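Operator note (shift B, R.M.): manual run for FAD-binding dehydrogenase requested after the automated queue skipped it. Running by hand, logging everything below so the morning shift can see what happened. Input copied straight from the record, untouched. If output looks odd, do not overwrite the archive copy; leave it for review.
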Amino acid sequence: MESPSADSGSQTAPATPSGVTRRHALTVAGGAVAAAAVASAAPAFGAGPQSADAIVVGHGLAGLVATMELAAAGRKVLLLDQEPEASLGGQAFWSFGGLFFVDSHEQRLMGVKDSKDLAWQDWLGTARFDRGVDDPRGADHWARKWAEAYVDFAAGEKRSWLAGLGMQWFPIVGWAERGGGLADGHGNSVPRFHITWGTGPAVVEPFEKKVRQAVAAGKVTFRFRHRVDELITSGGAVTGVRGAVLEPSGAARGKPSSRTVVGDFELRAPVVVVTSGGIGADHDLVRRNWPARLGTPPKTMITGVPAHVDGRMLGITERAGGRIVNPDRMWHYTEGLRNYDPIWPGHGIRILPGPSSMWFDATGKRFGAPDLPGYDTLHTLKSITASGHDYSWFVTTQKIIAKEFALSGSEQNPDLTKKDLLMLLSRIWQTPEPIERFKKYGEDFVVASSLSELVHGMNRLTGDNLIDLAGLQRQIEARDREIANPYTKDLQVMGIRNALAYPGDTLSRTASVHRILDPDAAPLIAVRLNILTRKTLGGLQTDLSGRVLDAAGQPIPGLYAAGEVAGFGGGGVHGYGSLEGTFLGGCLFSGRVAGRAAAAATG
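Run finished. Output pasted below as returned.
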């Protein structure tokens, strides 16, 4: 993988020509104009019979979207994946279904005033693009262009496009990644996390349906259990793929499948679209790319993605000439739980916390701002690694977890996933059953009736006796004293009151302000939080048509990429950090762009 550039670039948008906004031009680049622009760049082929008009490698969300677009344009597509049919839709199926919209109907319903300018300010403050932004060969040059196009998309046709495909969203908008405390710094200034009604499966469903219709019409052919090991090149162009046929597998969705080879294959097409995902299941690969700015790589991590998210196609595409940029940028969560009922190896579940739990390092020292629940994921990750330990603690109450804890994953939210309104409404008067099951069966929970009992349980769980009762009690009592007045110097308590000013948090995500040691909020609960691997933010560098670029910054004829393998666009549309709700959306947008452009290039 390529080392990150040290070049810096301005975060100020270049001047725009009179009458045409740069953002509008970039958004248009994701559609027909971009497709027409690359049509003339299609390579000439004559190196043998073609198996299809296009080959898509990876049947996750980005792959489904790209395939849908190719088929809609009348192209014949081969959709390949090393996994069996049960895993169609990939990692997106397991997601909470959060999507980033700007100035949406749901936001306006909740009284949230959002705008494209505010969202762009937040994106730039979070991404901090600084690697050759103004240099066409810079690692952040295309990433920033993709970011600008994506924010336009999120503020424009994204919602109407998806609604037209049948998707709906929970009316209460979530407020994720609340930031580091400055208007122009990291984080969302307003709530933008829109939960899809039906969670991850409902995000995948409309695209899977369209692709299956195209299969029935003879436009798309599935090739499950086809593992691509090489991109075929001829005259500098990618002209197909070679690989191994794996034995049939009855593995259930998310379960590891065998890697026993029973044959090989070679397929040819004018274009190949790589949509194979990131590296999150390969902890060794994560550690090799771990940035020094986040401290020492953790010795122990749990895994937030199925085992097939192995990063193989990154190296394979690089060997075919593709350029990998920003490999040191990644997004891992700090609030991971070991799953008591795992689906894949090392399966972890993330707590999506509200703002009220107190957060301590492994030694019992309270974190300060911005290391507060739901505020700044990567800064907190750095603080945890700096502590010399791979875990941290929430100390909280039953009253808080009942109102504020949500778990990532479609399977952990049966009310939303099954679209069960009565079950959803039951959250008003009871703790959601998945939370209670983790509290009962999960190894990371300690429940106690007193603080001394809680500390004893925390030390017993880890076996290292790092938590001192007197020290923990002093910090909790100091925080509790700040509750007596409607004003405070405690930034976390300020944040709780700020959250309660937003109706969405008052209704569903923030408990009323109370003392941690209030007997009426009991029992006391401590939760050991593990580092959970999840997203690759860097990847294959692509231009605004999804074409993969080489080391000289030139498009490789016939080669496109979308989704996480391309850093969700441009080799790193998020820069250094995410505003959340932007990963699924990045797959949707980049898959659409690459599919449309590849279709035009083969017309």
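Quick read of the result: Residues 583-601 form the longest helix (19 residues). The longest strand covers residues 524-536.
Leaving this for review. - R.M.
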